[in-house]
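Tutorial sheet, problem 5. The two components below are modelled jointly, 610 residues in total.
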Amino acid sequence: MKILALDTSGLVAGVALAEDDTLIAEYTTDYKKTHSQTLLPMLDALKKMVELDLRTVDVIGVAAGPGSFTGLRIGAATAKGLGLALGVKLAAVPTVNALAYNLYGCEKLICPMMDARRGQVYTGLYTFEMRSGAAEAGSEAAGTPESPMEMRILMKQCAMSVQRLADEVNRLGRETVFLGDGVPACMEALRPLLRVPYALAPSSCNRQRAAAVAVLAGFMAKQGRLTEADDFSPEYLRVSQAERERMEADEAQRELMRAGITPHRKE
Amino acid sequence: MDSVKEDVLILAVETSCDETAAAVVRNGREVLSNVIYSQIDLHTLYGGVVPEIASRKHIEKINPVIRKALSDAGASLSDITAVAVTYGPGLVGALLVGVSAAKAIAFAADRPLVGVHHIEGHICANYIENKELEPPFLCLVVSGGHSHLVMVKDYGVYEILGRTRDDAAGEAFDKVARAIGLGYPGGPKIDRISRNGDPDAIHFPRAKVDDSVYDFSFSGLKSAVLNYLNGCQMKGITVSQADVAASFQKSVVDVLVEHSMRAAGQYGAKKFAVAGGVASNTHLREALQEACGKRGIAFYRPSPVLCTDNAAMIGAAGYYEYKKGTRHGWDLNAVPGLKLGER
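Model answer (structure tokens):
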């Protein structure tokens, strides 16, 4: 099975082409240009280098969120356009899961963090363990008899404050490896809160890698968890600011009503 | 056999604001399909277009809209000669959805990519229903985001004679409609209610811009309407929505017609076209038609469905750009402040 994978969820832009257990090509950049300027030229370069006939692609894997709203949409619209033109389905890979999968085999606590602004990070908690019998709920990327290690999700990807994340990590009380673009952005705030030994992943594996998206997309394809290109939308994990403000205003209004106060309307 | 000209089919995509649109256009003038998904109901709640909500909706709708444009045209991607897409001006997040999808489709289908300027699209909407219209002609482009007086010298060759210094004409309609309690979108609502109002009931200013005879300014007019409303409120006078709307509309139309006709006279224009969302305004259409008629100038206007944001117009513009040899690379980006005539 040939999988083309894209990740534009954060500062990194990545494309990868994988077939079964072989990574045929991968192109990753973390540069000041926008994803709109880098993603398709990178895919074009990859295609030329490995003489890819796009019609042989079986599935398009895409980092489906969370992440930068605009970045997610550049990846999503590109994946949807490719899916429409090539007539293939998409594998919507959770961004933070793919980030964690960079640390395959790590039995410590894995904590990816992406800067989500407003004092929050997009994060989740993961670890790898040897498979014991049937795949359990909460396990992602189930192992095989030859390679029985699998990634377990201890906390699903979400947006949360640095303080709450520290509480979660401390509660589990395990040695932790942090990675992601949230590390430079939030480590200063997180460091004094941590009560566990921790390490920071090196640059070879501390950012989004489209190859990891490709591997997880492969698992999803095998499990039949694919999405029609037409139906796919990113998982933002957050409503827009306008919607949030409207909901807050509505809630404030309801609070007043509950308290028996009729809101004063401006004439 | 060689004399048979090969048809050029453009698949066009437009997502610059709150319409997700795709179309297939043959040889620049024949619309084979024109699909528009309007998000207007979604934004009415907020009194205007919310960029993040618009971008999210574009992502949901982009594929179904493109797929329908192809199927309505009875075409498959292999029939398409080139893919054209609006890459500016507009809301950057909204533009990026169309640009990214169009690039991916062109890339995967191995077709050339042609980036189109949104205003150029509006101008070219006139080619679709007026097969005889060819440059040179003078064009007034008025919409929610733009007010331009443009001399179309040749296909794809434009000289901007005048533009708005502040609010676009359509923006002024939206703001005044909100102030008199009509809500969003202002253009059609003011147009409708004005029919029952007296356009001479209140005299609002006709703004002039000091150093340019063709530039527009509508923010002063908007303030004048707001001041009038405040004044009435303080004096306890009941305001007639219809009279305010009709008088405001007349003030906008007078300025647009006056500048247009001055330019037509100065440049000896024989043909005049109007384009953009505000070109659907009945009063503006009638006034321009009459002014052109008096001067023996041929008057052109697209039907309302081609005045609003749509992709058929991008297909028309994309065709002429394609014929001129315009091709964009896979690094094409959205340019929210793109100027007409820029590449």
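Marking note: The radius of gyration of chain B is 20 Å. Full credit if you identified this.
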